[in-house]
Amino acid sequence: MASSLTCAGVIWAFLSFLCAAASCVGFFMPYWLLGSQLEKSVSFGTFRRCSYPVRDESLQMTVMVEQCGRYASFQAIPSAEWRICTVVTGLGCGLLLLVALTALMGCCVSELISRTVGRVAGGIQFLGG
């Protein structure tokens, strides 16, 4: 297999992939904020939460649901700031994955990545980060 990347480019491709994977895992995991509520451990991220309070009308009290899940809809995310964070972080992860996978393909395909494409990809990574 021929490569269109230099040794530094191959290192950049693998580091880009590792960083993109770490960003995506961090985005999908609900452990951004940790705390406790009603004597239970709770955590949540931009669009997922674990152990959250729910009003039980039959018992007329608030109970803790001890499971992880995503919000039922985009509007169910608690605040406009968290919604913006969800969109921006999701787009950033998508851009980072696009660049990383393109760079990894450049390790296997000759003439895929030129100097100009590498510079543009670096700019996209900067925006994605």
TrEMBL record:
Keywords of the record: Membrane, Signal, Transmembrane, Transmembrane helix
Protein's UniProt name: LHPL6 protein
Protein location: Membrane
Species classification: Eukaryota, Metazoa, Chordata, Craniata, Vertebrata
Membrane topology recorded in Swiss-Prot or TrEMBL: Multi-pass membrane protein
Superkingdom to which the source organism belongs: Eukaryota
Signal peptide per UniProt: 1-21
Record's keyword annotation contains Transmembrane helix: yes
Gene Ontology CC terms, in alphabetical order: membrane
Transmembrane segments: 87-109
